[in-house]
Amino acid sequence: MNNPQIEIQLIAAVVAIACAIPGVFLVLRKMALISDAISHAILPGIVIGFFITQDLNSPILILLAALTGVITVVLVEIIQKTKLVKEDTAIGLVFPALFSIGVILIAKNANDVHLDVDAVLLGELAFAPFDRLLISGMDMGPKSLWVMGVILIMTLALLVMFFKELKVSTFDTGLSSALGFSPIILHYGLMSVSSITVVGAFDAVGAILVVALMIAPAATAYLLTSDLKKMLGLSIGIGVFAAIAGYWLAHILDTSISGSMTTVLGLVFLLVYLFAPSKGLLSVLYRQKQQRIEVSLITFLLHLTNHSEENERHINHLNEHINWQKVRSKNVLNLALKNNMITIENKVVSLTNKGQEFTDLAIEYIITNRDENIEHMKDDFFLFRG
Amino acid sequence: MFKQISMKKIYLIFITIAFFGCKNTSEDNGKLKVVTTTSMITDLVKNIGGDLVEIEGLMGAGVDPHLYKASEGDVSKFYNADVIFYNGLHLEGKLVEVLEKMEGQQKTTVALGEFLDKKELIGSTYFTSNYDPHVWFNIQFFKQFAEKVTAVLSEKAPKHKAAFEENNTVFQEQLSQLELEVRSIIATLPEEKRVLVTAHDAFNYFGKEYGFNVVGLQGISTATEAGVQDVQKLSDFIIENKVKAIFIESSVPRRTIEALQQAVLSKDHEVIIGGSLYSDALGDAGSVEGTYIGMFTYNVNTIVNALR
């Protein structure tokens, strides 16, 4: 590996961490779309900042852009408060308007601005190592590494200082106000941090990758854990992994770096979505199948309790009576046998004491409308699940 | 439990990838490493440097330099390069900015277009401070490019100075030959028929130097789309001037010029698509049109044959 290769990965990793942290809170607050909105809506702020400073890396530019980001959020809330439209509609109304103002500003002054919409939306990470910070002739490393490094340290400091407040206000706004930290201030604080991160990362990696790095790792981590600290850790891990793996994918395919990183983020999410232990598609499907057979079991046991006559409990009769297919009735019978809920003598099925107890409890819960208790009851009674 | 396993796996993947990445592919053979942007400049440097330098061209056949996107491999090419030759005059978009910044970091980057006499350049109608970057369509300018490249290469690799200068003499002679040939082909076309209608304004220098009235549909940057009005105005122009043929360009989608043809046909006038011209990139490497001289001859023949 040569220097720029290491530096690109370093920049990408720092950007990934800086994006993952606000991303987790945005995803948990169901405001993922706002990051996309901010990334587009800050354009007029950047353009105006560039007119004033003539420097794409000036801190004034970052401040102005972050301000536009906060203005976006304020506008969205004003529109939303009219109750005429929903939040997603409000976001959809605000950010294209602001973005268009930015595009028009660029188009009207195109001769002075080396800023085109293309560069805004898909920044060029490949060039980042060649834009260096020189202090009195000394090479201090890539500029974007410094910009993102400062933003990351700031974000980390704010996260540590306000972790409790963020946690409470994210999960329980009411409790948060009661405890005395204003959810509104935290809300705007979070939005400001998101805006600043988007702006800082914007010249280095482009807005699309920023949005991907904010949302995809957090959304993936959300499928894997419900603990906030673990979710933060996992998001950071996934973000950094996607940044590095994406870089090497681009290396192998000799293609766009930002594009490859976004692709890896998408693939990681897809894999986790399919295979996550409790929220993944496969385990959800498996649980649904389990549920179905257990419901059948309860139906079967109820049938047994209701019929004392032997011909109703004869094994050959079951199929026609409850109208089940052979396989299904066999599965249900096996499950009941394995759990010691029934005995079979001379092809006649009878409930055991345990089976009777289980059925009585189930009836009780169903009659008193406490169906959710059946799940806990299953844990107590079942040795084997369906 | 699950988290631990997955983290371990992630680390494993990480390490594997890092190891794969560590193999160093670029070997050092002591030759001067030259990176070039457009295929015209790549061909030029090949003519001057020959086998004495190692040349990496970034943009292949049919790549539009305005819309060029860097790939991962380009990073190492830039980093390992001793000299980078590019067109400049904002032809290469954002890349120009990056290359200008690299100048300060012990890398020789040469914007060949910037060394031309600005008084001879065509100012852009949209951008007052900018110039039309398609300077290679004036053979005289391209000859100046060759002189500059020779000077830079001789300075960077002094031991091959004589060879570079000899190559340059040969190439200059070929270019002079080309110019004579081009002028004699064009002379066979009556002056009132010298109207060149193409997809974008790449041929202004060509028109100015060789007496063509050049009309482009899209403006200088290929990023902007042609408007409905542009198509209508241009179709009226074609009918008024009895233009026989209009031309597509290799690096610009043919859709817009076909729309123009339809507009003319709908007004009950004939116009044919005279062929595909090479504008911002040469033809495929290895073909005749893959060299500057081959490309130029091909373009002139195509234009003259279709308009005659």
UniProtKB/TrEMBL annotation, chain A:
How this chain sits in the membrane, per its record, is:
Multi-pass membrane protein
Query: InterPro entries annotated for this entry?
Result: ABC_BtuC-like (IPR037294), ABC_TroCD (IPR001626)
Q: Does the keyword 4Fe-4S apply?
A: no
Keywords, alphabetical: Cell membrane, Membrane, Transmembrane, Transmembrane helix, Transport
Q: Where in the cell is it found?
A: Cell membrane
Superkingdom is Bacteria
Main localization of the protein described in the UniProt heading:
membrane
Q: Where are the transmembrane segments?
A: 6-28, 33-52, 58-78, 90-107, 144-163, 175-198, 204-224, 231-250, 256-276
Is Plastid set as a keyword in this record? no
Picking any one GO biological process from the record gives:
response to zinc ion
Q: Name one GO cellular component term.
A: ATP-binding cassette (ABC) transporter complex
User: Which family does the record assign?
Assistant: Belongs to the ABC-3 integral membrane protein family.
PANTHER family for this protein: ABC-TRANSPORTER METAL-BINDING PROTEIN (PTHR30477), METAL TRANSPORT SYSTEM MEMBRANE PROTEIN CT_070-RELATED (PTHR30477:SF8)
Record's protein name: Manganese/zinc/iron transport system permease protein
* Record organism: Ulvibacter antarcticus
UniProtKB/TrEMBL annotation, chain B:
Family matches, as InterPro entries? AdhesinB, Bact_metal-bind_prot9, Lipoprotein_PsaA-like, ZnuA-like
Q: Name one GO molecular function term.
A: metal ion binding
Pfam families reported in the protein's UniProt record:
ZnuA
Q: Where in the cell is it found?
A: Cell envelope
For this record, an example GO cellular component is: cell envelope
Question: Where do transmembrane segments lie in this chain?
Answer: none
Alphabetized, the UniProt keywords read:
Metal-binding, Signal, Transport
- Supply one GO BP term: cell adhesion
**Primary location group:** other
Keyword hit for Transport: yes
Q: Which family does it belong to?
A: Belongs to the bacterial solute-binding protein 9 family.
Q: What is this protein called?
A: Manganese/zinc/iron transport system substrate-binding protein
